[in-house]
Design brief:
single chain; alpha/beta; TIM Barrel; Oligo-1,6-glucosidase, domain 2; Immunoglobulin-like; 3 domains; five-stranded antiparallel beta sheet; 19 helices; globular; disordered N terminus; binds 1-deoxynojirimycin
Length: 581
Amino acid sequence: MKKIPYAILIAMILGACTDQPAPVESPDTSGRAWWKEAIIYQAYPRSFKDTDGDGVGDLKGIIEKLDYIKSLGVNMVWLNPIYSSPNDDNGYDISDYRNIMPEFGAMADFDAMIKGMHERGIKFVMDVVVNHSSDEHEWFKQSRSSRDNPYRDYYHWWPAEKGKPPYRWSYFDENGDAWQYDSLTNAYYLHYFSRKQPDLNWENPKVRQEVYDIMKFWAEKGVDGFRLDAFQFASKDTTFPVLPEGYEKDVRNVIKHYGMGPHLHEYLQEMNREVLSKYDVFAVSEGAGSTFEDAHALVDADRNELQMAYHFEGVGLASSLDGYKLSDFKEVYSRWDSAFAKDGWLSIFLANHDNARMVSRYGNDSPEFRDVSSKMLNTFILSMRGTPYCYYGDELGMTNIDFDKIEDYKDIAAINGYKKVAKEGGDLELYMKYLQFLSRDNGRTPMQWDTSENAGFTTGTPWLPVNPNYLEINVEKETADPNSCLNYFKKMVKLRKDNPVLVYGDYQIIQREHPQIYAYTRTLDGQKMLVLLNFSEQNADITLPESDALGEVLINNYESVERSGGALSLKPYQAVIFSVK
Ligand code: NOJ
């Protein structure tokens, strides 16, 4: 486990969940909600659009592109953290929760951005990073200054006279050690992520109150949703016991021992009472615990905690250099869907800022199949139950950049992971191969707007290189081409928005054993759709027993579909949705 890059681990550890499904019962059509009907577009603010030439995207850039976002048909935007931050982990290390990072702009830009979104009927999701802060936050500066400082208990300290604390593993530490010794007070502090991301002590009621006040501050500013970063780790067993030998072999144990602490649900209910219930907002947890029971406890309506969670078992699948098996993909998504068929609500996504590009991992990014396989994957995301999260650039079919030198990488996970493997004398060549395929930087390259220099992202030097394929893959070109991935994406978004069956409908997988095709139906109040997705680069045949029932083709990523009665032949990566009579 220690040598696996973060992109893989985040998927494995945050989302391992292998319970058996609950039996499928009738769909939950009673609890409709705007956040279930939302289609979320995630933009990585650093990489979306730079307006001041410093090579870093900014809020004015988001504002400039609001009409583009609106044209996609999506109705909610999630931005990764935009608060003041020294950027050890690109904003996931916050030094002031009530201010905007100067590189991104000022509070006036934030106000204008959210106003611009609301005027266009787009809601806004704020990233809330409160499992940890930056070590440059005033709270931590105070906390480390002396053992009796009033902020001491805002973080987890282990006095060195008690000896070394029981080992805890850290995601980003170059020694893989979550305890950092601080000579100033002769004590260790805990950081599950980098040394510059000390974990906040959620057992301290003052910390919780600070967080709720911060959330209220943003809710008052009009924020419509909160994404709780790494939240399953917030409540911990603060006695920090020695963990059982070999516990890390089962990744679910990592969540169990590191997070999902004894008071997590109590705190979330408190957050719900203090903040969420007072505004028309929703909150989504990053991570869904280690069992379905955990996940339900986080999101079921009668729990009064959160509204949705995202699990990582799906994005964890394509984490091997050998790719993934369609049978596993079907199994994971069917199992999670079944478990939430009646109660609770989930998110659907295949990429985000912690993962490499969707088409490079789950589709086929060769020139021949990139476009069609991207369309097929977008069809999947937008036709499943759960709130879809679409990652910027995936509407265009943007691909991995495939850096080949460690010097090209900017991500702390990649850089410190490399140092760690080097220190341990591990296989650096293999590690580089992993990075090339799976690194988070693959998914963070600048948005490709047009064919001008730097793809129209910046007039300066981009903080991360633009993928050279921008001359082919860009918004300008794809807008003009009626058959582009972008225009297909818009059609698929519209299909979902026009048809609540794609949001709320019962999901049934059919012909589960088919080696190439993922086929399922969605049914709601007598309306039924059949989704056929060829996940392979070969033609694929399927015979449907009730061929007479097939109605019109609602969307198709090819011009036609070959069909003779119930026998259909799908082209490579073909995606078709039929209405069913
Ligand atoms: C999860 C975020 O998605 C990731 O980008 C970040 O590095 C860690 N949490 C730490 O905040």
